[in-house]
Structures are given as C-alpha cells and as structure tokens.
Design a protein that fits this description.
heterodimer, A: alpha+beta, 5-stranded antiparallel β-sheet, 5 strands, B: Phosphorylase Kinase, domain 1, Transferase(Phosphotransferase), domain 1, 3-stranded antiparallel β-sheet, binds adenosine-5'-triphosphate, binds magnesium ion, tRNA processing (chain B)
C-alpha cells in the first residue's frame, strides 16, 4: 500500500493504492459492487489494465474533480475512477474493461480519503487474496490489452512512452 | 491554484507555474480572463481556448511529436497541467550558447530537428500558430526537440495555413541565423511550398482576395 496527496485537491484527503494477487473471490466482489453495496466504497480495478501508479493518480484526480464540481458521470467517486481510467465515454464499456471481472485474480484498489490502515484492514476482510507491493504492477499488466484499449500505435513498445499516451488519453477525456 | 506552485512566467494571456503534481513536477498554464469581455462570454471563450490547446497538444503527442505530456485539464479554473520539460528554450540557446552561435553544423542539426518535428505536426493537420523560437525547447536528457505552447493552435488541412506556420518559423529563425536551412527536412507538398512563396511576399496576414 502507498498513499498520495492530490495537490490540486488537498482537502479531499489521501489517496490509498493497494495491490492484491491470487484473489479468489472477484465474482463475489463484483456482485456486491453491482448491487451498490455501500460497504465497498473503493475502486476495484483489474490489474491487467494498470501500467503505473501515475496512471491511477491521474484518473483519480479527474474523478475527484468531477465529484467536487458535481459532474460525476457514475454513482460515486470510486466508480468514477474506474470510468476515468478509460479513454472512451461509454460508461458500461469503461467499467467492464477497467473494473474487475468474475475471473480477475489480480486486483488494484484505490481509496479516496480516510485512514490508510483502516482501509487495509477492512479490505483484508473483503478480499480473499494476498496484498503485494505496488511496485509489482508490471507483473500483472497485460500490455497488448492496454495497447488495444488505449489505441496505442503498435510501433510503440517503450513503456514510458506508452504511459505518456495513456495519461494524456485520460486527461483529454474530461474535455471531449 | 496549487498551494506550493511557483509563478515562473507572466504573459499577456497566461501565467506559467511549476508545481508538484501527483509525484511529478508539472507546468501549470493558467489563462486569465479578459476584463473587457462580458464575464459569461469570457468564461465560455476561455474554456474553449483551454480545451483547444489541450486537444492540439495531445493530438501531437499521440502521433509521435515530442511535446509535453498532458496531465490534467481543468476548465473550471482555466488551467492545463503538463509535463515540466527539463531543458533549454531554443531562443536562449541561440543567444547564449557559444556552441550554437559559432558552429554552423550545430545550427543545421537543430534546424533539421525542427523541420522533422513540424512535418509531424502538419501531418496530423495541426497548425501550431505561434512557431517562434521561444516555443521550441531542447530536452536536456536526450537532446530531443520539444514543441510547446499550443495556445494558438487549431486543426486545418489547408496548405495556406501550414505555409503561414512555416513562414513564422522562417522569420523567427532568420532573424538570428540568416543562413539556416530549417526547411531542409520538412518535406512539404508542392501546394504548401507555393503557398509559402505567396505568404513570403505578403507577410503573415491572410490575403483578402480569393
Ligand atoms: N512544459 C513546459 N516545460 C518547461 N517550460 C515550459 C513549459 N511550458 C511553458 N514553459 C515555459 O514558459 C514559457 C511560456 O509558456 P507558453 O509559451 O506556453 O505561454 P505563453 O507564451 O505565455 O502563452 P500564449 O502564447 O498562449 O500567450 C515558455 O517559453 C517556457 O519558458
Ligand atoms: Mg509562448
């Protein structure tokens, strides 16, 4: 787990990012998310679609901005993070592509605000899996899927270059 | 504005800050309102301008031009957050760096980079609109040419518009370096070149006829 501040919105609290592997109950979590279970106020993201923490932070920053100026396209700031990660404006498609699916085994969680240790211990009761260091994103990322959904030219293979385009695609969506 | 932001440039249309942003350092470009305009109209026009700048910036980056990475667009406070480029402004380089002042080869190499970059910008029909040497930088890390300031950019496929871009660049460069050949690597179509010849004759302003 690592915690960050969004400098544009410092009063919204810290952003906590956690990574889990060998998760066995994604289907159960997804079902609870679909029924708007209030206990799950976290963004649950498929780790296959995460290249870097900066990608998550940029999407979270956008989501918090939408929340603060009442322009959320989804139910709450956490689902908005999943939506904001996607370069397209189709909501259900975005949530399907970037959110967890029934078969997800590696999951990234983003939490806006609150205490980090409380979030971690709460998550340990929700997620059946092992927490790992968020430096390990690269072990779970699916590059070809990333390239497909972010429409990245096939010639681009450098991951930093990919990240630059990903981040730009996320940022430009708020004015598209 | 971010609390620890540092104002580094105050222009006629925008303020430029550096600030910490989500673990990185960013440049924040803030457009301010024009007080002579009606507030509602001003807000709308400024938001449109910010959006257009961000779009052109990203469009170029996505198609392989080295421009600052786009981080965040906020039309509520008219700011664009982007990558902070560690490097030199070409204008300063040409004035103060002896290597560039004296070495013709060095100048040609730079001119070549500029030509290649601009060709890429025009290939996706972005017209930069303000191609002066203050809006070009050289990255310190890899000496890549970076195009900045898409504040006057727009999308157009007209050879005339591309020719005006070339003309502005030509004038900017020739004022410091009369013998430079920055067009060498810009493989222009015949349409653009003949328009360039026209624009050279009449200057930047669009002709009123035709
Ligand atoms: N991404 C960046 N990285 C480093 N320095 C930058 C960056 N963007 C701008 N600058 C610095 O700030 C100066 C002014 O920025 P810019 O050219 O975008 O604004 P401007 O000329 O005031 O705007 P406009 O032309 O729209 O009125 C640049 O010449 C450069 O020195
Ligand atoms: Mg400028």
């Amino acid at each position: 787990m690592q915690s960050f501040t969004l400098e544009p919105f410092p009063t919204r609290g810290q952003i906590h990012i956690l990574l889990y592997k060998n998760v066995s109950n994604a289907a159960e979590l997804r079902k609870r998310l679909l029924s708007h279970d209030q206990e799950l106020s976290y963004a649950f993201i498929d780790a296959k679609m995460v290249l870097d923490k900066f990608q998550l932070l940029v999407a979270t920053n956008d989501a918090v901005q939408h929340e603060l100026n009442s322009s959320l396209k989804t139910h709450n700031v956490h689902s908005e993070i999943v939506y904001s990660l996607s370069p397209t404006t189709n909501i259900s498609e975005s949530l399907r592509r970037f959110g967890i699916s029934d078969s997800s085994t590696s999951i990234v969680v983003v939490k806006v605000g609150g205490n980090s240790e409380e979030a971690r211990s709460h998550l340990s009761t929700l997620i059946h899996g092992e927490e790992c260091d968020i430096k390990d994103f690269s072990n779970f990322v699916d590059i070809s899927r990333i390239k497909k959904y972010y429409k990245i030219d096939d010639k681009i293979n450098d991951q930093n270059e990919m990240l630059d385009i990903i981040v730009g695609s996320i940022a430009i969506k708020s004015v598209s | 504005m971010i609390e620890s932001a540092i104002l580094i440039k105050q222009g006629a249309e925008a303020r430029i800050y550096t600030a910490p942003f989500l673990t990185r350092t960013a440049i924040i470009k803030e457009r301010f309102s024009k007080t002579y305009r009606h507030p509602t109209l001003d807000k709308k026009l400024t938001a449109r301008r910010v959006t257009q700048e961000a779009r052109c910036l990203f469009k170029c980056r996505k198609s392989g031009v080295d421009t600052p990475v786009l981080y965040f667009v906020n039309t509520e406070n008219s700011t664009i957050c982007m990558e902070f480029i560690q490097g030199m402004i070409i204008k300063d380089l040409l004035i103060s760096d002896n290597e560039y002042i004296q070495n013709k080869e060095k100048q040609d190499e730079l001119a070549e980079k500029i030509g290649i970059a601009l060709a890429k910008v025009h290939a996706v029909d972005v017209i930069h609109g303000d191609l002066t040497t203050s809006n070009l930088m050289l990255r310190e890390s890899n000496q890549s040419l970076v195009i900045i300031d898409f504040g006057l950019s727009y999308v157009s496929s007209l050879p005339e518009d591309k020719a005006v871009d070339l003309y502005v660049l030509e004038k900017a460069f020739l004022s410091t370096h009369p013998n430079s050949e920055e067009m060498k690597n810009y493989k222009a179509s015949q349409g653009i070149l003949s328009k360039l010849a026209e624009v050279r004759l009449r200057g930047r302003k669009r002709s009123m006829v035709g």
